[in-house]
Write a structure and sequence with these properties.
Chain lengths: ~210, ~210
């Protein structure tokens, strides 16, 4: 009918609703529409369930601890992995965050320890060496117990830069620094691999016996 | 090397972390990986910000009110739309939830009131007429102030069933029940429209003057 003008009243029918939507939409990858959907879902839950949700977040943030050895998230002072005497304390794998720890743990192929950087060098986002757990890595290595440092960071420009930076920082200790193998994924087809990966997989080819042992 | 066995230790390095991930992954469309990403994001925020997030959810759930007239979410007893005397109280648009109210309000084309069902009939999910705000719609209509009821529900089988159910419930009151127009979207191309929509748009063709007025 075209005779009604655009109404500039409040967008949300309730201030409480609006503030909850605002909070949710601050999360990464959550837009305002998704936030509203999540909030409306919570409104349909029992108040006790929503209380438990809110409390678990606040409790996590205020009570969480970081392992004094590897910076992993933990409920104690030292995480379960660092505490495990059956693991090889001579191997330290450097990873970006605890999701990488969980991914590597799920392979069941690694029994050394970790060092969680808490990010990778990214000057554009203001993340320099001081923002990462690099000093604690160097002091772990300087203790003399570490035989090998394994770099397991993303193969992005930032990841490669971080590996290069750490490599230089670790060079005075004269111990092997390795990176996890880059190559064609198991089950991947050659024709769909990008040239850089394919090229590297040729340069870093492994003896057939090693491939068989996997 | 294949010599390490799959380790069955805990999946998450912290119980606090695990419970926060569990809570997030209960939200619709949020899997465990996304939940972990969101929780790690919150861990990087200031504790005061996380407290505000948790509190806003708990406060919303415990203090939110539903409009006694239309069931819209509100901070008062009657929502701003129902309170607005400039709006036409003779028109009631039946919608599924408040997202639909917000969508219609954003068009600026409707100056009547709403009635929020709080869902649509869906026997598979256990949602029958008792779970929806149908009784309050009938009592609004029986007050005699309503001139027309406009159905604005999804064009799904459940939506159509709900409209049919409401139509039968409203028939004793002998007032016009309309549905919003279904047809080709503005900017939509005929060749990409499905046959049902295209067929309905032909059956429900409108005089050219009406189309011009929009």
């Amino acid at each position: 009918m075209g005779c009604y003008s655009k109404d500039p009243v409040q967008h949300y029918p309730s201030k409480l609703l609006e503030s909850a939507v605002n909070e949710f939409s601050r999360l990464p990858g959550v837009g305002r529409k998704t936030a509203l959907r999540l909030v409306l879902h919570l409104l349909r839950q029992a108040p006790a369930d929503v209380d438990r949700f809110g409390n678990s977040l606040m409790k996590l943030r205020s009570e969480v601890k970081y392992c004094t050895v590897c910076n992993n998230i933990t409920d104690a002072d030292v995480c379960a992995i660092c505490k495990d005497t059956r693991r090889d304390a001579g191997l330290v794998m450097v990873v970006e965050d605890i999701r990488d720890v969980m991914a590597v743990e799920n392979t069941g192929q690694y029994r050394g320890l970790y060092h969680i950087l808490g990010g990778i060098l990214n000057p554009m986002d203001g993340i320099g060496p001081e923002q990462l757990n690099i000093e604690s890595l160097l002091s772990r290595v300087s203790s003399g117990e570490v035989r090998e440092v394994i770099m397991a960071l993303s193969t992005t420009m930032e990841g490669d830069t971080t590996v290069f930076y750490l490599f230089r920082k670790l060079s005075p200790f004269q111990l092997p620094v390795t990176t996890i193998a880059r190559g064609i994924a198991i089950g991947g087809e050659l024709e769909y691999a990008d040239e850089v990966t394919l090229g590297r997989s040729i340069l870093n080819r492994t003896p057939y016996e090693n491939a068989l042992a996997r």
